[in-house]
Each structure stands twice: as structure tokens, then as C-alpha cells.
Specification:
Structural class: alpha+beta
Shape: elongated
Strand content: 15-25%
């Protein structure tokens, strides 16, 4: 057996000499990486926070709107179709034809589509069965209750009452943002049928019943009703009055002229609309057919 050389040490079997290099790390050989100063990967998916999309810039003037959007909001057509109508001169703003794409209008401007005034909101029609004690106005400086309080949750559209009812008068009241229809229904030359249930302080005599039926002259003015009738199953203190001109003021004026006191005045029919399935203080949307009927009134 050869002798070992002097000055050299034995190397154990299975071990290698790396010539001064750092010994091999078993952890690294198993596939696990070592990162100095960093937390080892634990197998969980990193939670990267997703950047939110930038918010669109708000319009500098909230009362300004693109003309095509104004038309689209009115429910006439889509924005793309509105652009086509604008380009061919079908739209006017404050009496002037506008054909410019992207043109902006104020909400207070008068916009006409084919000659008809339009509203930048979808047409809305609300029918209320008004109770006593509410003013028919959009705002009261004294802070009294108005009919707008009763329909506050009906829609976000800017609706207004059509016509007027006195504070203590009850019954049907229409609200809409359709200015053209509102003007039509309040036009004194437009015969809009209304029926009132009138309750008086005493029985109506047959003579007075006939006077009302034939028409009465009050201070030089002629007051006429379309029809008067007794209320079936009720006392002679209650009558039904149908009129197509004037208002509830006309009905009160007739009875007060004949020395009656009106204890209750209820509008039960307005322009073909009725109180069926509509309790006092409640409201409902008009059906599509009811809207068509109103627009077809002559």
C-alpha cells in the first residue's frame, strides 16, 4: 500500500474538496431559494391592488347639456338618431335652427323638435287623489303643506301640477313635465271634461236644481254646466256636476249664488281619468293608453 504524502490530510470518502469555496447548501439543492433580508415565498398569491379607472371630469356647468343628449332624454330618439335630425335642421334652440354637432344648450333654453317644444327629461305623468289641506303650488313661502310633498317620491323628473284645486278641495290632480300637454289641458278654449261630487249644507231644492241645469247669470256672466244629477243612494244634499269649462271655482260660485254652503267638493273625473283603485293621498303613473287618450283630446 502506498504511503500518504507528507503534509496532506486525508479526505473522507464521499466528500469533495472545493478548494476554499463555500460548501454546497442542501436547501438550495431542493429548489428553495434563499433571499437575504426578504420573507420567503409562502405559496400565497400576491395581493396586487388594482388601480381604479380615473373618474370622468364633471361638467363645468351643471345646467348645460349637449343638444343630442337633451333630445334623447326627452324620449324622442337615441343620441345617434338625434344627431341625424340636428344635421338636417329639424331642431331649433330659442327660435334658431342648430345643425352643429356637439352643440350645448342651457336647461332654460327653448328647444323645439319638428316645431314642438321638448323637455330634456323623459315625459312623466302622475295622477294624485288629493286630500284636504294641501296647497296646489310647487312652493309655499309660509311653509304650508303643498301637493308636491305628496308626490316627492314619485319621480326625479321636475313635474308640476296641471291646473289648480283649492286647498280644501279634494280629488284628481295631474302632474307632468310635458309642458305642451299641460298647456292643452288648462287652455280655457279646450273643453276638458271634469266631474265634481258636491256635498252641501242642506238639500238642493228642485227649483234650484233646474236653475243650475238651465244656466245661471251671475253679475252679468253666464254660468253653465254640462250636466247636473243627484247622487244615487245619497241625500238631496249631494249632487254631481259635469263641466267642460271653468274650474271648481265655477261650481262653488253657482251654489254660493243660490245661498248654499259647499261642505265638500271632490273632483272624481278629470279629462277621462277616474279615481278607480286610487285611495285618497295616493298617486300612480298613467298608463300608456291614458297618455295617448289625453293627447288625442279635442
Amino acid at each position: 500500500m502506498a504511503k500518504e504524502r507528507h503534509g496532506k490530510s486525508k479526505v473522507k470518502a464521499g466528500s469533495k474538496n472545493h478548494g476554499g469555496k463555500k460548501p454546497f447548501d442542501k436547501k438550495k439543492s431542493s429548489g428553495e431559494k434563499s433571499f437575504e433580508g426578504k420573507k420567503p415565498f409562502d405559496g400565497k398569491k400576491p395581493n396586487y391592488r388594482k388601480k381604479s379607472a380615473p373618474r370622468p371630469k364633471s361638467s363645468s356647468n351643471p345646467n348645460e347639456i349637449r343638444l343630442n343628449k337633451y333630445i334623447s332624454n326627452s324620449g324622442i330618439c337615441s343620441r345617434r338618431e338625434a344627431d341625424m335630425h340636428i344635421s338636417i335642421g329639424s331642431v331649433t334652440v330659442n327660435g334658431k335652427v342648430v345643425t352643429e354637432m356637439g352643440y350645448k344648450v342651457q336647461l332654460t333654453d327653448e328647444v323645439r323638435f319638428d316645431g314642438r317644444v321638448i323637455n330634456p327629461e323623459k315625459p312623466t305623468y302622475i295622477l294624485l287623489n288629493k286630500p284636504k289641506g294641501f296647497l296646489v303650488t310647487t312652493k309655499d313661502e309660509k311653509g304650508r303643506k303643498t301637493v308636491m310633498d305628496l308626490v316627492a317620491n314619485a319621480t326625479k323628473a321636475r313635474i308640476v301640477p296641471v291646473g289648480r284645486l283649492e286647498r280644501q278641495t279634494t280629488g284628481l290632480l295631474l302632474f307632468t313635465n310635458d309642458g305642451e300637454l299641460a298647456r292643452k289641458l288648462t287652455d280655457p278654449h279646450q273643453k276638458v271634461r271634469k266631474i265634481f261630487h258636491v256635498e252641501l249644507d242642506r238639500n238642493v231644492s228642485q227649483a234650484d236644481f233646474n236653475k243650475i241645469k238651465d244656466g245661471i247669470n251671475i253679475r252679468g256672466d253666464r254660468y253653465e254646466v254640462d250636466e247636473i244629477s243627484w247622487i244615487q243612494g245619497a241625500s238631496k244634499r249631494e249632487v254631481g256636476i259635469k263641466v267642460s269649462t271653468g274650474s271648481n271655482g265655477l261650481v262653488k260660485a253657482i251654489f254660493e249664488h243660490l245661498s248654499y254652503t259647499v261642505a265638500r267638493l271632490d273632483r272624481v273625473v278629470f279629462a277621462g281619468l277616474t279615481k278607480k283603485d286610487l285611495p285618497r293621498s295616493h298617486w300612480r303613473d298613467l298608463t300608456a293608453q291614458e297618455v295617448i287618450n289625453l293627447k288625442n283630446l279635442k
